[in-house]
C-alpha cells in the first residue's frame, strides 16, 4: 500500500501524470499517517536528487469537516494555491467567479510545464454530500484531461464510498482504492505495545532508559498485562485506543514510582473500560435508585414499552406501602423532582419532544439502562438499603 | 449606451420618396432624419454616407455605407448597406494574411457574401467618415477616436485585396459628398457637443491627405471654427471654469514656496521630469522640430477644453495659435543642446513654471497619441504646416495681445524645450512650450499642483486588483520526465487525458453529428440536438472532435465560419450562471445572470446584421434543471427564433431526459433530433485500446481482450477500461522490477481488475477485531430470533453477552458495545441511527447476511 501510493505520487511529480485515488480504512488504521509518511519520503527523495524538485508539489489539504460546502472548499483551494485573486489571506469574489477562475487557472497548464498539484481531501465522504458534487466532478475531470497535472487523494473510513459518488463523477474517478486494514495479530500487537512504550536510544539518561526498557520487556511477558492487552485487542484493533490506555498507565509514573507495573496497566484498563452510564448511577440518591428500580420492573412487566411518571410513581408507592419501615414516604413533588434529575442525566429519555399540551406526569419515557447495568451498579452502590436491593433483585413473583 | 439613446431617438424620412416599387410596395428615400429627443438635435443622413450600425457589443458598432433607404409595405424602414469590417471582426487566423499592423481606425471594404446587407433603420447610430486610401499610404493622424475610419483593402472572407480603382473612386466620391453635407448639417444639427470639433479636425486631416482640397477645407474649417466651434468651446469653458479656480489658487500658493529655494528646485525639477518621463510610456526618440510643431497644433484642439479663461470666446483659438508661434520662435534655441547653459538662464520663477508646466504634461500624458500616429504625423507634417501657416496669418491678429509678455519666458521655455529634447517626447515639448508662451501661468486651467500630481501618479507598489488577476498555476521549475520504458510509454498513452489520433468506434455518431451541424451551418439556421449515453462512452470527445473538424473546414473556407461556445452544467454553480458563461464566451462581457439573460435574448431574437452562427455545446444538461425550467426553455427557444443562427448540442446521460424532467414546452422545443451513444461492446473497447497503444508491444492480445470483456460486461465505460490497463502496467512494472521488463499478461490484468472491483466488505470484516466480529454474529442471531432485519442495540447486547459466555470470554460493558457499534457504523458495515438514542438505537446490516456469514465462517 505504501509502495503503491508512493509510486502514484512520484509519477505525478516526475511525469506530470494526473491521478486519483482513495484511501479507505476504518478509523485509526493510519490513513493520514501513511499519507504523511509518503509525502515526507517524497520530499526527501527530491532533495536527494539535488534539490531539483523543491517546492515542487503544492499540497492541498482539505478536510471535509472544515470545508462544509463547495464554496468554502473552493476558497480554501484558491488560498492555498496562492492564486492571484488572493489578497492577503482572503479570497474575494462570488462562488461562481471563484469556480470559473480556478478552472481557468487549472486549464491553462499542461502536462509538461506546469507544476503538479496534489489535492488531499480528508473525510472524503463529506465532500460527497455537497450539492451536485461539483467540486469532485471538477477535480476528477481535471485529473482526466490534459490540463494541469493533479492528483486527487481522498481519505475516508466508509467502505461504501463509491456508491455515494454520482455516476458521472464515478466514471471520472480512476477507481484506485487503497484499503488499509489493521490486519496484525496479537503477537504483532504485543510488539507494537513494546515499541510504543520503549524509550528511544538517544534518551539522555541511559541507565534509566535501560531499566525502563527492561521493565517494558518484562511487562510484555507478564500474564496480567497480556490479559489486559488481549481484552483490548479483542475489543478493538485501533492503535489509538492502545495509546490511550498506555497514556493512562504512564501518567501514573512519578519520581517515587518510576516504572510501570502490571497493576498500573490493570487499573488503567479498568478505568478505560468503565461503563459511563453505570458510573452515573453510583452517584444517585436512594430515592432516585428506587425510581430506576421501579422503571426496571415496569420494563419487565410491559416488555420494554414506554412508561410515564405516573406509572413509576405508582410502582414506587406500592414498594413504600409494603416496606414502609425503612423508607420515608416522599411527597409526590419531591419524587417528581428526583425524576426530573434522572431526565437531566439522560438516564431516562422522552420518546417524543415535550409538547405544551401534555402534562409532564404523562409524558412517555424510556429507560436508557439495561437490567445488567442496574444490577451491577447496585452491587457497587455504597450503603444501599437491603430492602431496596431485595426489591431490585425480586422478580415478578411478589406482585 | 446605444440602447439608452435608442429609446429617445425618432427616425423619420428626409424628403419625399424618390421612387417607389409598386410590386414590392416599397418607397425609396434619399435620406433619413435622426431626431434625438434628449439633446434636441437632428441629424440628416443621406445615401452614400457612412454610418455606424449597432452591433452585438455596444462598445463596438459596425461601420457601413448607406446604399439605399426604403420603406416596405408594413411601414418598416429599411436600409441597404455596404459593410466595412473591423479588424476584430476578421477571424484571428486570417489576420495574419495582412502581414502588417492594423490600427483600430482602419476598416476593410467587406465583400463577404454571407452577411445580410438589409438592416433596420433603427440600428443606425450616427454618421461617420470613411476615407479611402491607397495601400501604400500611411494612415493620417486620426484625431477623433470613433468618427473617422480609413479603408485600404477589401475583405471577401478569404483574402485581402487592394481596393479596386472603381470602388476607390466611388468611396471617394461618397466621401466628398459626405464632406460637403456636414457644412449644412453641422451648422444646424450638432450631433453632440464635441462633434463639430471633431468634424473640423477630420477635415484638417483629410485636407492633409488630399492637397487638392486644401483651400476648400481651410475655408470650411475657418467657418466652423468661427461659428459653432467657438460657441461650443465657450460652453465647455464655462463648465471647466468651475473646476479650475482651486487649481489656480494652489498654483499661486505654490510658486512662492518654491521660489526661495533657488537652484535646488531646478535640479528637483529635472529629477521630477526624469521620473515622470520614465513613468510615461516610452516614446520614440529623434523627433524632428517640424513634427513638434505639427503635433502641437494638431494635438491642441482636443485639449482645448482643458484651457480655461473667462475672457472672450475666441481666446482659446488664439491660445492655440500662440503656442504655435512660440514653437516657431523657439526653434533656434532648441538646437542648443548644452544643458549647463540653460541652467544659467534659469531663474527661480522659471523653475516653478517649468515644474508646473511639467505637471501639466504629466496630467495630460494619459492622452498620449500612440506611436503610429506620430509616425504618420511626420509624413504629413509638411502639408499640415503649410496649411497652418495660412490659418495662422488669418488669425494672428487676434493673438497679438497675448504674445506681449512672452519674451520674458523665452529663456525658460527654451530650457524646457531642451529638457524635453533630452526626453525626446515631441508632444510634451509642444505642450510645455505652449504653456510658456502664455506668460501668466495662472491662466492654465489644468495645471495641477505638484502635490496633487504626485498623489495621482500610481505607486509602483500598489497591489494588483483581484479582477485583473490572471488565473495561472505556477510553472514547474523542472521539466517533466520523458517516459523511459515501454510500459511507461504505454501508460502515458492509456491515460484518459491523452488525446488519441482518432476516435475509433464512433464513426457513425461522428458522421451524424457532423452532418447535422454542417447542414445547419450552411443553411444559416438554428437547431438542437440531444445526445445521450452512459458515462464514458465518448459523447463529449466525439462532439469536440466534430467541432474540431468543422473549425478546420471553416478555416479552409469549406464552411462559413462560426463561433463555438461550450458550457458544462457541472462547472456552473447555479443553472442561471449558464447565461453569464455564454455571454462571456461570446462577447467577453461580465454581467449578472439576469442581465446576461436579457442580453442574450436580445442577441438571439433580434435580426443581427452580420452575425456568425454560434455552436453551443451544453454538457451535463440535466444539471441546468430548475423548477421553472426557464434556463432550459430559453436555451432551446433561441434556436427556434428566426434570426438566432444558434446550434445547440445538448449532452446528458439519460436517454429519456426530455420526457422525464422537462416540461412539455421545453421538450417540444428540444425537437426530435436525438442520438444515443450505446455503451461500447468488448470488440470496440479492444479496438480503442489497440488504437491507443498504436502497435506498441506492451500488452498481450489476450490481456486486452480480457479487459474489454470484463468492462463491457459491467458498464462499457471506456474510462474504466483505460484505468484498468494503466493499473495493470503498474503491477507489471512492479513485478518485473528485478527481471527484464516484460509485457502485460493476463495475470496482471486479473490482479488489476480484482483490485478495482473487489468488494471491500468481506476483507474489512475479516480484519475486524474479535468483539466486532462477535457483535456482527450477535446481530445475525438477533435477526434470526426476531425475524426482522432490524434490531436495537439493547437486543444485540444481550445476544452479544450470551455469545461471549459461550466463548468463555469476558463480556464487554455497554459503553464498549456502543463504541464497537459506532465504529462498525462509521465503516458503513452497519447502518445505525444517530447515537443519542443510546441503547434504543436501531441497527441494520449494510451488507447481506450471507456475506457476513461467509466472512465469519473462515475464522
Provide an overview of this structure.
Chain A has 399 residues and is α/β, with parallel strands linked by helices. Chain A has three domains: 1-179, Rossmann fold; 186-273, no CATH class; 278-393, Arc Repressor Mutant, subunit A (Orthogonal Bundle). Chain A is built from 19 helices and nine strands. Chain A has helices spanning 2-15, 31-48, 70-81, 95-108, 124-128, 134-143, 161-164, 167-172, 186-197, 206-221, 223-235, 239-250, 262-273, 276-282, 286-302, 309-322, 332-344, 371-380, 386-393, and strands at 19-24, 58-63, 86-87, 90-91, 117-122, 150-156, 177-179, 348-350, 365-367. In chain A, a hairpin with a 2-residue loop joins strand 3 (86-87) and strand 4 (90-91). The longest helix of chain A has 18 residues, at 31-48. The radius of gyration of chain A is 30 Å and the shape is flat. Residues 48-59 and 85-89 of chain A have low confidence and may be disordered. Among the domains of chain B are: 9-178, SH3 type barrels (Roll); 507-676, Rossmann fold; 682-757, Orthogonal Bundle (Helicase, Ruva Protein, domain 3), CATH 1.10.8.60; 760-856, Winged helix-like DNA-binding domain superfamily/Winged helix DNA-binding domain (Arc Repressor Mutant, subunit A, Orthogonal Bundle), CATH 1.10.10.10. In chain B, the strands form four sheets. In chain B, strands 6-7-8-9-12-11 form a six-stranded mixed barrel. Chain B has a five-stranded parallel β-sheet with strand order 15-16-17-14-18, sandwiched between helices. Residues 1-7, 142-146, 178-385 and 393-480 of chain B have low confidence and may be disordered. Chain B is α/β, with parallel strands linked by helices and 859 residues long. In chain B, helix 7 (263-279) runs parallel beside helix 11. The relative contact order of chain B is 0.06. In chain B, 51% of the residues lie in helices and 14% in strands. Chains A and B meet through helix 1, strand 3, helix 4, helix 6 and helix 8 of A and helix 16, helix 19, helix 26, helix 28 and helix 29 of B.
Amino acid at each position: 500500500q505504501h509502495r503503491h501510493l508512493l509510486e502514484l505520487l512520484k509519477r505525478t511529480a516526475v511525469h506530470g501524470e494526473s491521478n486519483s485515488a482513495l484511501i479507505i480504512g476504518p478509523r485509526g488504521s493510519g490513513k493520514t499517517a501513511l499519507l504523511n509518511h509518503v509525502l515526507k519520503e517524497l520530499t526527501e527523495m527530491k532533495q536527494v536528487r539535488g534539490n531539483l524538485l523543491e517546492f515542487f508539489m503544492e499540497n492541498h489539504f482539505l478536510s471535509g469537516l472544515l470545508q462544509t460546502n463547495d464554496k468554502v472548499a473552493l476558497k480554501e483551494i484558491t488560498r492555498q494555491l496562492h492564486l492571484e485573486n488572493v489578497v492577503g489571506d482572503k479570497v474575494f469574489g462570488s462562488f461562481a467567479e471563484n469556480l470559473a477562475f480556478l478552472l481557468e487557472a487549472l486549464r491553462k497548464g499542461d502536462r509538461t510545464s506546469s507544476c503538479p498539484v496534489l489535492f488531499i481531501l480528508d473525510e472524503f465522504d463529506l465532500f460527497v454530500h455537497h450539492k451536485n458534487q461539483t467540486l469532485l466532478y471538477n477535480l476528477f475531470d481535471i485529473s482526466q484531461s490534459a490540463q494541469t497535472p493533479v492528483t486527487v487523494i481522498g481519505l475516508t473510513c466508509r467502505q461504501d464510498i463509491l456508491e455515494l459518488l454520482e455516476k458521472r463523477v464515478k466514471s471520472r474517478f480512476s477507481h484506485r482504492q487503497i484499503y488499509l486494514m489493521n490486519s496484525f495479530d496479537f503477537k504483532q500487537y504485543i510488539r507494537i505495545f513494546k515499541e510504543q512504550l520503549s524509550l528511544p536510544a538517544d534518551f539522555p539518561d541511559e541507565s534509566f532508559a535501560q531499566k525502563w526498557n527492561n521493565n517494558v520487556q518484562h511487562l510484555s511477558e507478564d500474564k496480567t498485562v497480556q490479559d489486559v492487552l488481549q481484552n483490548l485487542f479483542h475489543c478493538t484493533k485501533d492503535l489509538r485506543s492502545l495509546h490511550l490506555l498506555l497514556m493512562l498507565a504512564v501518567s501514573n509514573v512519578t519520581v517515587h514510582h518510576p516504572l510501570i507495573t502490571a497493576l498500573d496497566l490493570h487499573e488503567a484498563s479498568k478505568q478505560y473500560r468503565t461503563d459511563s452510564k453505570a458510573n452515573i448511577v453510583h452517584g444517585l440518591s436512594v430515592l432516585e435508585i428506587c425510581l430506576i428500580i421501579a422503571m426496571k420492573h415496569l420494563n419487565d412487566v410491559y416488555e420494554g414499552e414506554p412508561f410515564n411518571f405516573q406509572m413509576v410513581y405508582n410502582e414506587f408507592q406500592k414498594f413504600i406501602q409494603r416496606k414502609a419501615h425503612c423508607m420515608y414516604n416522599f411527597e409526590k413533588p419531591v419524587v417528581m423532582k428526583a425524576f426530573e434529575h434522572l431526565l437531566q442525566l439522560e438516564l431516562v429519555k422522552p420518546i417524543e419532544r415535550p409538547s405544551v399540551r401534555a402534562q409532564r406526569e404523562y409524558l412517555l419515557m424510556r429507560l436508557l439502562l439495561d437490567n445488567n447495568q442496574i444490577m451491577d451498579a447496585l452491587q457497587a452502590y455504597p450503603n444501599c438499603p437491603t430492602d431496596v436491593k431485595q426489591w431490585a433483585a425480586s422478580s415478578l413473583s411478589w406482585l | 449606451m446605444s440602447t439608452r439613446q435608442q429609446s429617445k431617438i425618432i427616425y423619420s424620412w428626409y424628403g419625399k420618396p424618390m421612387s417607389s416599387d409598386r410590386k414590392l410596395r416599397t418607397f425609396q428615400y434619399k435620406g433619413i432624419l435622426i431626431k434625438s429627443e434628449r439633446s434636441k438635435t437632428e441629424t440628416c443622413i443621406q445615401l452614400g454616407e457612412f454610418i455606424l450600425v449597432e452591433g452585438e457589443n455596444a462598445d463596438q458598432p459596425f461601420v457601413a455605407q448607406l446604399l439605399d433607404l426604403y420603406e416596405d409595405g408594413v411601414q418598416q424602414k429599411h436600409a441597404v448597406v455596404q459593410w466595412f469590417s473591423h479588424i476584430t471582426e476578421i477571424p484571428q487566423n486570417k489576420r495574419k494574411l495582412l502581414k502588417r499592423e492594423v490600427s483600430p481606425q482602419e476598416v476593410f471594404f467587406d465583400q463577404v457574401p454571407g452577411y445580410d446587407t438589409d438592416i433596420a433603420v433603427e440600428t443606425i447610430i450616427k454618421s461617420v467618415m470613411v476615407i479611402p486610401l491607397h495601400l501604400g499610404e500611411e494612415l493620417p493622424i486620426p484625431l477623433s477616436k470613433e468618427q473617422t475610419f480609413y479603408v485600404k483593402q477589401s475583405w471577401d472572407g478569404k483574402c485581402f485585396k487592394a481596393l479596386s480603382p472603381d470602388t476607390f473612386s466611388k468611396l471617394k466620391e461618397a466621401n466628398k459628398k459626405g464632406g460637403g453635407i456636414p457644412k449644412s448639417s453641422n451648422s444646424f444639427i450638432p450631433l453632440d457637443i464635441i462633434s463639430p470639433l471633431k468634424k473640423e479636425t477630420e477635415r484638417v486631416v483629410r485636407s492633409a491627405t488630399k492637397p487638392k482640397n486644401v483651400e476648400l477645407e481651410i475655408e470650411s474649417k475657418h467657418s466652423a471654427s468661427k461659428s459653432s466651434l467657438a460657441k461650443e468651446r465657450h460652453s465647455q469653458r464655462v463648465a471647466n471654469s468651475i473646476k479650475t479656480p482651486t487649481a489656480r489658487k494652489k498654483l499661486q500658493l505654490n510658486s512662492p514656496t518654491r521660489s526661495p529655494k533657488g537652484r535646488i528646485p531646478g535640479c528637483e525639477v529635472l529629477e521630477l521630469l526624469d521620473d515622470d518621463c520614465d513613468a510615461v510610456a516610452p516614446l520614440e526618440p529623434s523627433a524632428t522640430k517640424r513634427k513638434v510643431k505639427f503635433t502641437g497644433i494638431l494635438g491642441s484642439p482636443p485639449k482645448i477644453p482643458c484651457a480655461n479663461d473667462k475672457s472672450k470666446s475666441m481666446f482659446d483659438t488664439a491660445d492655440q495659435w500662440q503656442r504655435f508661434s512660440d514653437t516657431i520662435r523657439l526653434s533656434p534655441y532648441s538646437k542648443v543642446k548644452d544643458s549647463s547653459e540653460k541652467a544659467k538662464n534659469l531663474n527661480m520663477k522659471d523653475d516653478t513654471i517649468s515644474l508646473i508646466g511639467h505637471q501639466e504634461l504629466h496630467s495630460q500624458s494619459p492622452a498620449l497619441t500612440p506611436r503610429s500616429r506620430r509616425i504618420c504625423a511626420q509624413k504629413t507634417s509638411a502639408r499640415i504646416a503649410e496649411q497652418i501657416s495660412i490659418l495662422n496669418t488669418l488669425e494672428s491678429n487676434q493673438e497679438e495681445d497675448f504674445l506681449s509678455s512672452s519674451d520674458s519666458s523665452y529663456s525658460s521655455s527654451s530650457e524646457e524645450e531642451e529638457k524635453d529634447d533630452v526626453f525626446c517626447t515631441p508632444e510634451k515639448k509642444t505642450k510645455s512650450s505652449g504653456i510658456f508662451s502664455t506668460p501668466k501661468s495662472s491662466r492654465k486651467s489644468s495645471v495641477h499642483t505638484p502635490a496633487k500630481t504626485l498623489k495621482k501618479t500610481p505607486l509602483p507598489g500598489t497591489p494588483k486588483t483581484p479582477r485583473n488577476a490572471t488565473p495561472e498555476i505556477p510553472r514547474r521549475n523542472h521539466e517533466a520526465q520523458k517516459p523511459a520504458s515501454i510500459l511507461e510509454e504505454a501508460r502515458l498513452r492509456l491515460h484518459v487525458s491523452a488525446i488519441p489520433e482518432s476516435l475509433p468506434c464512433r464513426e457513425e455518431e461522428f458522421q451524424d453529428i457532423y452532418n447535422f451541424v454542417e447542414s445547419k451551418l450552411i443553411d444559416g439556421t438554428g437547431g438542437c440536438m440531444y445526445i445521450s449515453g452512459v458515462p464514458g462512452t465518448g459523447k463529449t470527445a466525439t462532439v469536440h472532435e466534430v467541432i474540431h473538424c468543422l473549425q478546420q473546414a471553416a478555416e479552409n473556407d469549406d464552411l462559413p465560419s462560426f463561433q463555438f461556445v461550450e458550457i458544462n452544467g457541472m462547472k456552473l454553480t447555479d443553472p442561471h450562471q449558464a447565461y453569464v458563461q455564454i455571454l462571456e464566451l461570446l462577447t467577453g462581457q461580465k454581467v449578472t445572470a439576469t442581465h446576461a439573460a436579457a442580453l442574450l435574448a436580445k442577441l438571439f431574437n433580434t435580426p443581427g446584421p452580420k452575425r456568425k452562427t454560434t455552436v453551443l455545446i451544453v454538457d451535463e444538461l440535466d444539471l441546468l434543471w430548475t423548477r421553472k425550467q426557464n434556463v432550459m426553455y430559453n436555451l432551446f427557444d433561441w434556436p427556434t427564433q428566426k434570426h438566432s443562427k444558434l446550434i445547440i448540442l445538448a449532452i446528458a446521460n439519460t436517454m429519456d431526459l426530455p420526457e422525464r424532467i422537462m416540461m412539455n414546452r421545453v421538450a417540444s422545443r428540444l425537437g426530435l433530433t436525438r442520438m444515443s451513444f450505446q455503451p461500447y461492446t468488448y470488440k470496440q473497447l479492444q479496438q480503442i485500446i489497440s488504437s491507443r497503444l498504436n502497435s506498441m508491444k506492451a500488452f498481450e492480445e489476450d490481456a486486452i481482450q480480457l479487459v474489454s470483456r470484463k468492462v463491457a460486461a459491467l458498464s462499457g465505460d471506456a474510462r474504466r477500461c483505460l484505468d484498468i490497463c494503466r493499473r495493470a502496467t503498474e503491477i507489471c512494472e512492479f513485478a518485473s522490477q528485478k527481471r527484464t521488463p516484460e509485457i502485460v499478461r493476463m495475470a496482471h490484468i486479473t490482479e488489476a481488475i480484482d483490485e478495482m472491483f473487489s468488494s471491500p466488505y468481506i476483507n474489512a470484516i475479516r480484519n475486524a477485531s474479535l468483539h466486532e466480529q462477535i457483535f456482527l454474529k450477535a446481530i445475525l442471531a438477533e435477526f434470526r430470533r426476531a425475524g426482522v432485519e432490524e434490531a436495537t442495540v439493547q437486543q444485540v447486547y444481550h445476544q452479544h453477552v450470551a455469545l461471549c459466555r459461550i466463548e468463555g470470554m469476558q463480556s464487554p460493558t455497554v459503553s464498549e458495545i456502543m463504541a464497537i457499534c459506532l465504529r462498525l457504523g462509521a465503516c458503513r458495515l452497519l447502518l445505525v441511527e444517530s447515537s443519542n438514542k443510546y441503547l434504543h438505537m436501531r441497527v441494520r446490516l449494510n451488507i447481506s447476511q450471507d456475506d457476513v456469514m461467509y466472512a465469519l465462517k473462515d475464522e
